[in-house]
Amino acid sequence: MTPNQVSAGDLLQLIRSGRANTRADLQRATGLSRSTIGQRLDLLNGAGWLRHTTGTSTGGRPSHRIDFDRAHASIIAVDLETRHAHAAVLDLSGNILAETTAALDITHGPEEVLDQLARWFPDLIAAAGVEPTRVCGIGLSVPGPVDWEIGRIVEPPIMPGWDRYPIRERLQRAYAEHVGPHMEDGPIPVFVDNDANLMALAEQQANHRDCSAFVLVKVSTGIGAGVVINDAAYRGIDGGAGDIGHIRLHDRPDAVCMCGSHGCLAAVASGGALARQLTTMGHQTSSGSDVKRLLTEGNPDAINLARAAGRRVGEVLVTVVTLLNPGVLMLAGDLSGAPFVTGVRELIYQRAMPRNTANLQIVTSRLGDHAGLIGAAAMVTDVLYSPARADARLERLAA
After folding, report:
1. What is the pLDDT of residues 128-175, one digit of tens each?
2. Span 3-25, mean pLDDT?
3. Residue closest to 175 by CA, chosen among 135, 131, 126
4. Which among 242, 222, 152 is positioned nearest to 193, based on CA atoms?
5. Collapsing DSSP states into helix, strand and coil, what is residue 56?
6. Strand pairing of 328-332 and 213-219?
7. Are both 33 and 85 inside the same structural domain?
8. In terms of CB atoms within 10 Å, which end of the chain has fewer, N or C?
């Protein structure tokens, strides 16, 4: 990129990343003149996206630091699970300002679920103490495969009625109805992604920034994986990457999966599969969260099944580790306690080549139930303030 091609959005990217936080830094990084840097910064200042601070002097002129103002707007994030939803208002640093959790059954379909979510938003925004007009976008985490470019769920096994439903448009209408207009002209931006992708993005950014190949596996009612390569979520060509719950196990053709196939990993080792097994053993369970409760209570049947499930998941993860050679493999979700993790570790270290495990960390989630929310907010921030999107927004604001 030549200096003439460096836009205000490009400068914002340098500032947000911390690679350039003074005018001199920006000049060195871009080759732009001081006057041109000033013109670009004026655009960003006019939008209210920058914060300026003056450092202490060491004998010369005090330094003037330029930072992205992460308090100038807020984001609504929703982590939609199979039987409940977790919603929050966050600032642009990913700090949660207000949150709520309530029962919400995804099998009731997108119309009912999305409208109910939007009904929560006014009280949530008020609890966060932010102006509704300062909400810049909505991020939605869902337990199914997503074609990210169009914001639609594609053939979700556990979300009947959601296949290719126009989530973005419906949630925009519901937001306008229940909350009102957002901070810029036009409908509020809405972005949707798979829950494991967003959890992986949040965990990698928060605790494993130096890991260039990061894998998170979520085992709850279903099983899915999120992959972050060089700080960006890897989704595949149409959002299908990481759907490891539907890899077939050769020795379980009797296990019928919700996707209609036989022998899928999710049909054998997910929270939903263990719930069914525990029910036949006399423990009334219906979901991964019920299994988690039994594990917390120390139920021996649940512990034994969770360890066995970890070994089955570990069989698949041996291939994942061999293919991607990640530095961190994180286990998350309802089953990610000690028995399950032990089973995964046993299989990986038993069957994977030492070369692929020598520098591998197998860890559990540190953000817990907030990972999906923080990841959804990070997704919105990364998109809305990317160079191209930022420049387009600046043009509209100046019009």
Report:
1. 999 998 999 999 999 989 999 899 999 888 889 999 999 999 999 999
2. 90
3. 135
4. 152
5. coil
6. parallel
7. no
8. C
